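Ops channel
N.P.: pipeline sanity check, posting one input/output pair.
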């Protein structure tokens, strides 16, 4: 965690895809697949974050300790996102000005092609002018066809749930 960063969600090891999507949707999310229950509860408590889990016992314990918890059980990714959307006002749309690094939760900043040359495939440099770079891990993102597919997936959720 870097200075001043506050997590909104803490996601357990069984929900890695959900953690990535929360970050993509601009929500600061703690996810460490090696974190134990104590660490998850501690981070959620320290940040006033919502704990999201598939572990019923962990959720019951969180509630007893005053930590807000969402138990997802066997919910799939779409159902989980829709549930968090309903309960916490999570907007199911990708806003590149808010998106966080899906890998490490770092803030993203805009970058020009000259800055990322040699770090992305040649064809990408030729087709795109705007890029996002993670300030923490340096991963480079660009608005390719995957962004269109993500937006279609989210639109489908709004219709299904």
């Amino acid at each position: 965690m870097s200075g001043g960063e506050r997590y909104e969600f803490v996601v357990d090891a069984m929900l890695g895809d959900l953690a990535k999507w929360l970050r993509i949707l601009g929500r600061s999310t703690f996810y460490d697949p090696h974190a134990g229950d104590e660490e998850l509860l501690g981070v959620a408590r320290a940040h006033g974050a919502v704990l999201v889990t598939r572990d019923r016992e962990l959720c019951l314990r969180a509630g007893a300790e005053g930590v807000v918890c969402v138990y997802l059980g066997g919910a799939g990714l779409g159902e989980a996102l829709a549930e968090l959307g309903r309960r916490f006002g999570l907007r199911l749309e990708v806003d590149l000005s808010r998106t966080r690094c899906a890998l490490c939760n770092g803030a993203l900043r805009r970058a020009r092609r000259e800055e990322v040359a040699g770090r992305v495939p040649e064809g990408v440099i030729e087709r795109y002018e705007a890029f996002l770079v993670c300030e923490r891990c340096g991963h480079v993102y660009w608005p390719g066809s995957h962004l269109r597919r993500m937006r279609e997936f989210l639109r489908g959720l709004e219709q299904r749930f």
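N.P.: looks fine end to end. The mean pLDDT is 94.
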